[in-house]
Amino acid sequence: MARTQGSHSDITGPRIRKAALGLFARHGYAAVSMRQIAGEVGVQAGALYNYTPDKQSLLFRLMHEHMQDLLTALGDLPATESATEALKQFVGFHIRFHLQRPDEVFIAYMELRNLTRENFAEIEVLRRRYEDTLETILKEGQDARQFSIADTKIATLAVIAMLNGVMTWYRTEGRLTLDAVEGIYWDMVRRSVSG
Amino acid sequence: MARTQGSHSDITGPRIRKAALGLFARHGYAAVSMRQIAGEVGVQAGALYNYTPDKQSLLFRLMHEHMQDLLTALGDLPATESATEALKQFVGFHIRFHLQRPDEVFIAYMELRNLTRENFAEIEVLRRRYEDTLETILKEGQDARQFSIADTKIATLAVIAMLNGVMTWYRTEGRLTLDAVEGIYWDMVRRSVSG
DNA sequence: GTTCTATTTGAACGATTGTTCAGATACGGT
DNA sequence: ACCGTATCTGAACAATCGTTCAAATAGAAC
Predict the structure, then answer these.
(1) How many other CB atoms sit within 10 Å of the CB of residue B68?
(2) With a CB-CB cutoff of 8 Å, which residues 137-156 of chain B face chain A?
(3) What is the pTM of this model?
(4) pLDDT of the residue at A11
(5) Could you check: is the Cβ of residue B168 within 7 Å of any atom of nucleic acid strand D?
(6) Residue A128 burial by CB count (10 A; 0-12/13-18/19+): exposed, middle or buried?
(7) pLDDT tens, A135-154?
(8) Which backbone phi and psi does B68 adopt, to 5 degrees?
(9) Which of the four pLDDT bands, split at 50, 70 and 90, describes residue B6?
(10) What span, in angstroms and rounded, lies between the C-alpha atoms of A161 and A55?
């Protein structure tokens, strides 16, 4: 029978992923060794293989879980009455969600090239799904004449790129509150899609 | 006496940097070995050390030369009469310059963490200088009441982030011409900083 | 054609890589 | 108290890493 108490299995697994997350984010997947991860957990390198078949799967799982969480949280947003409102909600959600998980976000787009082709394709599907949500909002706003957008596909990517920029500089202890940042970005996004 | 003809020195050096550039961009600095670079040049790994003291210097030189080129080209732009015109020029310049050098650009901001502290600090100075040029434009436009910006520092980073997004999707053989892309982005940037 | 030297080779270095696995360990169930 | 097994250790594997260097090579100068 599987142990239900006292087992290290339920503890070591998450700790390994947490350590890998931090190390991958800080030094990059290729620059981090399994021994470094093990060292951070306080375990020998061999023990990691009770929790992951290999290093690649460790990276993939981190990215996959992150994308799943992102899409789930996005789906949990309340319905809105107008595209403008939906866009505002999206901007706020994107900023807050991503600032809460800087390591996951960093990895999710810096380490794409270190995924195998199959794993990459799987992540790409999820990423595309997220982008499509935004593009749908922009299209609906365009149809309802709330927005004035030359190319919704480009606008989608431009907005996301702009919002992602926040992670390169935002620090909790900085001069701006999260609400202020959200307000400033919403202003810029709103104007960039309005006539 | 130094050889002036037939010497491989003047040829091998640039070829090494070109090979390293492509490989670093595609696979990442940490994932590329000196032997891979040498192989692409058609030379043994030991020969690389006639042209670079070590792998780190190879990366640093690529990034440093790129930043120097960027700042030089930026400085060569003609003077403008208004901040709006200056911003338009900046947007066009940024898009064109970066799309011409996808590998350099990719490395310049993906491999920052693989620089030693000293090398990182040196690149950071150049990057900051580039950003300051944009922020100055935004400030002047703000003072002249051409722009309406809540926070010029954030706006600077947001605009650059947005423009950088173009490199993740633009392909020469795609449906949009460079001029069209430039126009679309200029539209979005202009509106995002206007009242 | 000989000399000189810039350039490259090819082997070697110690260190580190991801991964495997037999044996030690420690805990839950009985 | 003993058993069974989930978990971990610690050593080993072959491969590869960045770097060094004596020896080989090849082109320029005379």
Answers:
(1) 11
(2) 150-151, 154-155
(3) 0.92
(4) 86
(5) no
(6) exposed
(7) 999 999 999 999 999 999 99
(8) -65, -45
(9) very low
(10) 29
